[in-house]
Amino acid sequence: NDGDTMPILVIGTGYGGAVAALRLAQAGQNVVMVEKGMSWTQPGSDGKVFSNMLEPDGRSYWLRTKTDQPINHFMGADYNKSIPSYTGVLDSEAFSGIRIYQGRGVGGGSLVNGGMAVTPKQENFASILPSVDAGEMYSTYYPRANAGLKVNNIDQTWFQTADCYQFARVGIKQAQRSNFSYTFVPNVYDFNYMKQEQADTAPRSALAAEVIYGNNYGKNSLDKTYLAAASGTGKVTIVPQHAVTTVSPANGGGFSVAMNQIDTSGNTVKTKTVTAQKVFFAAGSVGTSKLLVTQKATGKLPNLPDAVGKGWGNNGNVMVARQNQAWDATGSLQATIPCVGIDNWADAGGPAFAEVSPFPAGIETFASLYLAITKNPNRGVFSYNSGSGGVDLNWQTAWNQPSIDCAKRIFDKINSKEGTIYRTDLFGEYKTWGDDFAYHPLGGCVINVATDNYGRLTQYPGLYVIDGSLIPGLTTVNPFVTITALAERNIEKIIADDFH
Ligand code: FAD
Known about the structure:
Helices cover 24% and strands 21% of the residues. By secondary structure, the chain is of the alpha/beta class. Helix 1 (15-26) runs parallel beside helix 7 (226-232), helix 1 packs parallel to helix 10 and helix 3 packs across helix 10 (480-498). Flavin-adenine dinucleotide binds at residues 11-16, 34-37, 101-105, 108-109, 112-116, 212, 243-244, 282-285, 287, 291, 439-440, 467-468, 478-480, 483.
């Protein structure tokens, strides 16, 4: 409520925020979490909490009147649909050279993501975050994160015959024929539940085209894991539909935090200001970066370092699809949960880790779709725009060319071996590469650069950053296990040193 005081406020309920809240509560602290999205617990008129990808409605997107699907065309036609404007679960946030997809709601990105729970190779981690003790991460914090997230592995015997993974088996076969190595990828989606879906003994979710607008069943998103455990301590209060706007030092100590309470149309129904002794920024790479550059530029937190807003990257994300031969059908029933990656990171000429992605169109498409994570050296900068009062990101679409070059090293070779071609009808009219959007925003407040080596904003004791903005633009694999493990490491140190 307006005027409240509290010991700890966490801004955002994604991976970083959920870890911070749980561990602080277990250490005996009372925590308030604010989240600008909704609490996704109430079913709509169709009896379901979330809408699927084939029939999206207002629940799908954050305040849009038309869907903005990553695959926005199909055989020459615009694949997007009109929807009512609503505070839906997936945000496609547009900057000049890139659209950045993010989850909105209690659970952040875990509500909309593919659940791929990948621990990077230790040598790759060490090259990205040299200031963080990799030995400790791999012995303690990655295992802790995997357990907390309820990561599980697919039953590879079942995989070999399940209809819903024909697309992935085709992906493996073609990778092998071109001498690429592949790996099964762990997930937070419950693969035992998926077996029941395939056997028609449980309501379908992954097998009913549900994922980027939320899964009604099967997925262990954060609201079922870390946040449920945090609430279970009785010490954590989660306040949805509140967007933080300003943070500044309060007279008499602590921080004054202003926020807008919003309705499902996105309109502010009330503004509130609270005072918190300690504030954790966990609004995600984009959300935290936007908040921090705004506070610095508008004089609310003028002493923040110049490194705030810098070092942003898209994890080298690029998407592409190939059109298979008639004997390589990919299946009309496709699990929305990817479980296989082609690992070409060791290729010094263009490192890439490409997940074999589903294309759950409900019909046979003969298409193989991939999301590649590549080693792209370009980094963007967020800056406050005093004219609009918003925050710009200077990323240019052309900066994705290195990612395309990395991905081509895999897919040009597979195309030539299979006698196949790229599809050009999915990411626009006559456009091969999905190079103008990202699922994996990272950086903007890089650890040991903009913060100390544990995420403290040292100019303002009591302010912390604990989300994907700490990671310098790249994780070499899908990022949320690394975000979670780094948060586990940092919060342990912060609790030990800063809470007495
Ligand atoms: P987030 O999870 O983004 O959480 C930040 C939260 O803060 C959000 O809920 C947001 O609404 C809230 N917030 C923002 N601003 C404010 C504010 N001003 N006030 C209050 N609240 C605010 N990663 C993987 O590892 N594997 C995958 O398979 C995978 N698939 C993906 C698929 C899609 C479609 C998308 C969009 C992402 C995917 N990701 C995947 C990426 C992953 O979800 C993100 O890396 C992760 O969620 C980032 O965690 P975070 O804690 O940094 O922030």
